[in-house]
């Protein structure tokens, strides 16, 4: 069985996968600037730097060619990982991924996101805004804790640098299976953005739309992720 690696999104950590890990054996990792890797965050860090650090983490763990399951910001990082280090990735399962092109976001939205750093009330409002399903209290508390301990440099770097980068020119050589799971009700990365800026730039990718979840699918609808993983395990 191929190893499965879980990569979190912006502001969160490997703990965002807790409910998924109840049903699958996988390695959940922290991207630089977040979770236990918060101190490694750097001002202006790029998607490339995050992908390089992720590659080093996977090599250090001896993961080998892996199914990489990546959420939100992690989706963009995982795409570049697969393009730059194809020997590490056998398959991509992208969950509500940030697009490989600049993420559509109004200046006011970027300013609001930037201002949420280190602010418990703002983080609470932010997570209520981007979710539809109730999140267990334990997991919601972890979201806030992860937001509070994230690197300030990494937080601003994604908001002002990484989310604006265009890595789409590097994806033409991808030959591996790619599946994109997204919610038609996602208020953070719209289904239109998924269709026009993710699926349209990944010819051959399989689209799996769901309904009823907001952006935090791993916590709001972990069964959707587990069904996808189980289906992909079937010979």
Task: Characterize the structure shown.
The protein has helices at residues 18-21, 47-61, 73-84, 107-115, 120-129, 137-149, 152-160, 191-198, 217-220, 222-233; strands spanning 4-7, 27-29, 66-71, 89-95, 178-183, 206-210. With 235 residues, it is of the alpha/beta class. It has a single domain, classed as Alpha/Beta hydrolase fold, catalytic domain (Rossmann fold). Strands 2-1-3-4-5-6 form a 6-stranded parallel β-sheet, sandwiched between helices. Strand 5, helix 8 (191-198) and strand 6 (206-210) form a beta-alpha-beta unit. The chain is globular and about 45 Å long. The relative contact order is 0.19.
Give the number of DSSP strands: 6
User: What is the structural class?
Assistant: alpha/beta
> In the CATH classification, which architecture applies?
3-Layer(aba) Sandwich
Total tally of structural domains: 1
CA-atom Rg in angstroms: 16 Å
Strand-helix topology:
Elements: E1 4-7, H1 18-21, E2 27-29, H2 47-61, E3 66-71, H3 73-84, E4 89-95, H4 107-115, H5 120-129, H6 137-149, H7 152-160, E5 178-183, H8 191-198, E6 206-210, H9 217-220, H10 222-233
Parallel strand pairs: 1-2, 1-3, 3-4, 4-5, 5-6
Helix pairs in contact: 2-3, 5-6
Keywords: Hydrolase
GO molecular function: hydrolase activity
Domain AB hydrolase-1: 5-227
């Amino acid at each position: 069985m191929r190893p499965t690696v879980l990569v979190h999104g912006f502001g969160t950590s490997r703990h965002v996968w807790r409910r998924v890990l109840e049903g699958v054996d996988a390695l959940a990792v922290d991207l630089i600037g977040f979770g236990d890797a918060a101190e490694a965050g750097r001002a202006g860090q790029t998607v490339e730097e995050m992908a390089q650090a992720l590659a080093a983490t996977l090599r250090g763990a001896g993961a080998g060619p892996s199914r990489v399951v990546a959420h939100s910001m992690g989706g963009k990082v995982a795409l570049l990982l697969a393009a730059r280090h194809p020997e590490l990735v056998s398959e991509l399962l992208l969950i509500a991924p940030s697009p490989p092109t600049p993420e559509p976001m109004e200046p006011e939205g970027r300013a609001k996101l930037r201002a949420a750093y280190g602010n418990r009330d703002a983080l609470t409002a932010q997570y209520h805004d981007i979710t539809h399903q109730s999140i267990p209290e334990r997991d919601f508390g972890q979201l806030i804790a992860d937001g509070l301990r994230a690197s300030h440099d990494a937080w601003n770097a994604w908001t002002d640098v990484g989310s604006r980068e265009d890595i789409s020119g590097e994806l033409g050589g991808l030959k591996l299976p790619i599946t994109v799971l997204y919610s038609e009700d996602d208020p953070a990365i719209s289904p239109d953005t998924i269709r026009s800026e993710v699926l349209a730039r990944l010819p051959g990718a399989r689209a799996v739309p769901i309904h009823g979840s907001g952006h935090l699918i791993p916590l709001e609808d972990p069964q959707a992720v587990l069904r996808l993983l189980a289906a992909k395990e079937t010979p």
